[in-house]
Amino acid sequence: PAIPRETLGYSIVKRSVDIVLSVTLLVLLAPLMGFVALLVELTSRGGIFFKQVRVGHNGRTFTLYKFRSMHKGAQGDREFLSHLNELEGPVFKIADDPRLTRIGKFLRCSSLDELPQLWNVLKGEMAIVGPRPLWQPEAEKATDRARLRTLVKPGLTCLWQISGRSEIAYDEWVELDLYYIQNRSLLLDLLILVQTIPAVLSGRGAY
Question: Which residue has the higher pLDDT, 15 or 44?
Answer without folding.
Answer: 15
